[in-house]
Amino acid sequence: MCISIETDRLILRPWGKNDALPFAEMSQDKEVMRYFPTLLSKYESDALIQRIQSYIDQQGWGFWAIELKESGEFIGFTGLHHQPDKFEFSPCTEIGWRLKCSAWGKGFAFEAATASLNFGFNSLNLKEIVAFTAQLNEPSEKLMLRLGMHKIQNFEHPDIEEKSPLKMHVCYAITATEFNQLRQSNK
Fold this sequence. Notes:
This protein has 187 residues and is an alpha+beta fold. It is built from 5 helices and 8 strands, in the order ββααβββαβαββα.
């Protein structure tokens, strides 16, 4: 069973065929992809959607497509993914997000990520969720802090070339207890 989550302004949902073109455009946007090693071709972005949706089909959750409730427009993705052994802090469940530029600065990433964390902690009963990004990616790091996450370590991403300025990453985490206490204090 695939899960969809609604927030005040967003729907986090399984991917549909109409998401392929806007996701491919996003994956070719140099600003969106600034903190990733390469832009993705249409073929690569379609393959990524298939891998993400296959994971959702198996687990019932994953990196959901984000749709604006008001217009139905696809604006990116957010959600959770289990990392069994790739990193020194694995096994872990990560939260991730990527939104198109026109969706930046409107609180959508925070709203979608908060809903994903809530699902992870209060539906999946996870104990901890991590997030990581290139050290250069200050906007993502600021979102992690705004979500109540705390820095646990710097690390070298194993899939990024040694000489790349994106090699060094930062990892943040939040526990279920921390998340639920933060939600209670913000009510």
